[in-house]
Write a structure and sequence with these properties.
CATH class of the largest domain: Alpha Beta
Bound molecules: flavin-adenine dinucleotide
Number of strands: 14
Number of helices: 12
CATH topology of the largest domain: Uridine Diphospho-n-acetylenolpyruvylglucosamine Reductase, domain 3
Helix content: 25-40%
Strand content: 25-35%
Shape: globular
Order of helices and strands: EHEHEEEHHHHHHEEHEEEEEEEHHH
Length: 290
């Protein structure tokens, strides 16, 4: 790998300015677990790394009036050991727990995972079913959007080359919402997802489902919300038949491909099974809260 210049700006504005001034030859560096591998194989024009991992504004997990704010430079290890995450967003911990191995989780950040934007990103489904909002910074200041709008294609987000992901907000209304994440890979550890899935929902005392959310990874060009399955579930009485039907609708919404890891047909079987499992386990949690 050829030598690269390294700069660690003191704040987000300085980082944006540096990236803008060197827009053809620089890129942000977080934990480096995706970026350094990519640069080794395909360095392109990149000659400068702008290390954003120590920018204070991008760090920490904080409970604020609007919800739980996770800085983009929070590592998976930090998420797993955070009492706030354990209390409010256990499904996000479940996703973090499945990333790589200890070394990767200690370096890899949630921001880097979302910006890399592979369809199998393990942080995405749980954050999506909790209707997270991402905030980015660029030359025009800050901008926030639903996490789904951040992903626009395989390995492509809405970010321009000088823009940075600042944080992810899980809205207050969804803190402690019953939710579940599951991942299926070729091995239990150190394997990318063939399919990953998350769900969240509430059940009232009569077992009526409300605010069901389903997200699937590695089954479409970007992590996907199964909106038709969600609409089908809303207001229905919870039953095995209803969950089976929702899982079937989720399969029809996905666009899995054949690749060297799995056939599309096998992925469809896993989507069906995992959608059922995450819905059933979210419903079990909801029942316990009633
Ligand atoms: C051995 C191994 C196993 C892995 N296993 C998994 C797995 O099981 N599941 C999974 O989902 N991923 C896995 N990964 C991928 C990787 O670890 C994650 O995607 C990780 O979260 C990336 O974060 P990072 O901090 O290392 O990002 P980096 O590699 O530093 O950056 C990734 C990309 O994001 C950009 N970037 C970083 N931060 C910002 C920011 N704040 N604003 C704008 N752009 C930014 C960088 O320029 C780069 O393009 C694995 C990687 C390795 C090496």
């Amino acid at each position: 790998m050829r030598p690269l210049d390294y700069i660690a700006p003191k704040d987000a504005k300085e980082a944006v300015d540096l990236l803008l001034e060197n827009s053809d030859s620089s890129c942000p560096l977080a934990g480096g677990t995706d970026l350094i591998v990519d640069l080794k194989h395909n360095p392109g024009n990149i000659t400068m790394l702008v290390d954003v991992s120590c920018i204070e504004e991008f760090r920490g997990i904080k409970e604020i009036e609007e919800g739980l704010k996770i800085g983009s430079m929070v590592t998976f290890g930090e998420i797993m050991s955070s009492e706030l995450c354990q209390k409010y967003i256990p499904a996000v911990i479940e996703g973090a727990h499945t990333v790589g191995a200890v070394q990767t989780r200690n370096l890899g950040t949630v921001g880097g995972n979302l910006v890399t934007c592979v369809p199998s990103a393990d942080s995405a489904p749980s954050l999506m079913v909790l209707e997270s909002i991402v905030t980015i910074i660029g030359t025009d200041g800050y901008k926030s959007m639903p996490i789904e709008d951040f992903f626009i294609g395989p390995r492509k987000t809405i970010l321009k080359s000088h823009e940075l992901l600042v944080n992810i907000l899980i809205p207050k209304k969804n803190l402690s919402k019953p939710s579940k994440f599951l991942k299926h890979g070729l091995r239990k550890g150190q394997a990318l997802a063939l399919v990953n899935a998350a769900a969240s929902m509430y059940l009232n005392k009569s077992d009526i489902i409300s605010e069901p959310k389903i997200a699937l990874g590695a089954v479409a060009p970007t992590p996907l919300r199964a909106l038709k399955a969600e609409a089908f579930l809303e207001g229905k009485k919870y039953s095995e038949e209803v969950i089976n039907e929702a899982a079937e609708i989720a399969v029809s919404e996905a666009k899995p491909i054949d690749d060297f890891r799995s056939s599309a047909k096998y992925r469809c079987d896993i989507i069906r099974t995992f959608t059922k499992r995450v819905l059933i386990q979210s419903a079990d949690q909801a029942k316990q809260k009633n």
